[in-house]
Structures
1.
Amino acid sequence: MSTKEFDSRKHIGLLCDCVGREVKSAIGRGVKEMDAYSTSSRHGWMIGYFVRQKEPIFQKDLENIFHFPKSTLADIIQLLENEGLIEKVPFDGDGRKKQIIVTEKGLKFNQATEGQIMEVEDFITKDISSEELETVSRVLEKMQQNARNYKSYIKLKKED
């Protein structure tokens, strides 16, 4: 246990959370201004992922990619389906195994959302060099992996 006083250090987790919320909010405002979609920017990231996949997409595989609990992911998929952005269709004629496909409306949503994401990212990264951005990306990816490792460590620790 650390003996440092809690408030005397810079809290990276809080900073990352605040930055993430600001970026999502900025993207979301831009998408909402288009008045065409009621889904959030978080859904835009997911649709963008779907659009880029070469292989069939199945709901069960998405938990490890997006790190959502199963129930949250099921709610998001249902919302995207209800909004007409995706469809779940039988795969290889097997009615039990359904793949996720992006609809025409979903492709339009993706295009609008990606345009807004690029606009926000260009704005928030102005005056930051490509070297600095690369460093930030590398550090954040390491921190993400360390957080995953910590979750595994805690799980193992509880099992002892």
Note: The chain has two domains: 10-125, 127-160.
2.
Amino acid sequence: MDELRDEILAQRAAAGDMGAVEALVDRHRVAVYRLARSVTGNHHDADDAAQEAFLRMFRALATYEPDRPFKPWLKRIAYNTSLNAIRAGRARSRGLVEGDFPEVADPSPRQSDAVEAKQGAAKVNLAVQNLPSELRATLLLRAVEGMSYKDIAAAMGVKIGTVMSRLSRARERVMDVIEPVGSAVQRGEKR
């Protein structure tokens, strides 16, 4: 079933083919978890939200329209279940772990450079961690998942302009944390 498109697998799954359901879950498990993690901010809630997303997917397969792309439909379900986890007060921690961002190899063998790089990464991590969930999720979907604006908009149920605005605000807030105020003035920004 690896060669079958998601839309065909979804049709088969809606007809009761459990092998198709398993193929869809296997194919999208990591992406759904990562989306949930970017919204909830922690492993436990992300794991719960991802499981709930697949349960909701299974229940909603009868309403899925196969002429529409499957992946944004599923990511929309995952996004909503993740938001529900936050709204229900189950999101205990917004902390990100080191594995949330790709590691960048330090070409410099100097100890002081390595310490400075770790401090910079910690600043970025903290800045992203403290973003509101909508901004954090939008930023991580773009930067970590590499999703297009269109796919992010579909997953979050917003317009592309909203995605662009959220990305701009998220980047600005992260830059405000990692750069001193004087640097922003040097960049020509108004304060």
Note: The mean pLDDT is 80.
3.
Amino acid sequence: MTHSSPFGKDSRVRILKQHLAESGTVTAQDAWRFIYRELLWIDGSTGLAHLYESDKAQPGRPWYDRSVVFTNMLCDRFGGISRDDLKLHIDRLFRACLEILVQGHGAEGEDEDLAETLTALRTVRFESSGPKSQTTSDSERDVLTYTPDVSLVMEFAALLQQHTKMPQPEAESFARELVARARVYFTVERKRQNVLGEGFEDLLQLLVTKIGRVPDKYIRVRQLANHLPGFQNANNTRARIEAPDLAIVKDECTKLLASVKWSLRHDRQKQLSDELDCYADLLSQQAFPRYVLITNEYDPGRLVNSDGLSRRGQRVDCIYHVNLELLLGALHDHERIRDIRPLISSGRLRSIADFFTDMSEAYAA
């Protein structure tokens, strides 16, 4: 019997609907808070809210101080809570998916490997005893104690002894930590990225319906562009057809195309360019739809570069960011903040609240 994944669309949407119902009224102005509660997470290597790539956000590097500012601002805006309390307020979608996996049965493929890791970590936590370091989190203690793949540990230990001349007991201890951390990374953290990308799209679809009051029949999610009205150019010879993350279709005309990207690393900026090129190539309706980018990117250079993308006379009409106030606060010391302010003042960079307001004004039933 095939079981649907706890991380699949059906599961994600069911969880998000439940959380939305439990949250009471969510307005355009506080939608960012709900988005962060569901999708933002704590970087296990720093204990701070994840703002940027982990390797660039370590102590001594510029993005570490920005992550501290960002985390402190979040704690303040969530009611003056502590950083420990913040962990309990965010990452709700992924944690709920994990809970379903651990409680369920019949996990297959990657889910089975992940369930095995989580079960082992839970056993470690339950059985742990002795003094606890005040500076080490539960998850860090679990990783240090959990010892999967003993044969791989011994191979790593041998390499450490061979190349660093590390004594055997130290080499084996270090190897256990490396293997345990790698196991968690390749199961838990990699799965998080999958949930984050599509979960962001699912969440926006729900909020566009609830806050923007846009009828479901107008909304298309991840549908190939040549299946949308207005994109049936008979001369098209493209081998690859892009699928907008979110589209609004009304009166048999595609009104809006949205690219939804939590972050905008180089590969995703390339994808934006490919999308524009595809839509321009397929266009068969008279007017090109409004094309927008919705993101939580905090790197000013990436935001500026994305704003400047242009293909065949078409460009991004507007970038909507989850929270502009937190963006400006986190970038207080970044020299390129001067490039962000003009985008905001010109309306090229707007807030997620503006997105829901715009959708309501244009398409509400």
Note: Confidence is low (pLDDT under 50) at residues 123-136, 140-146.
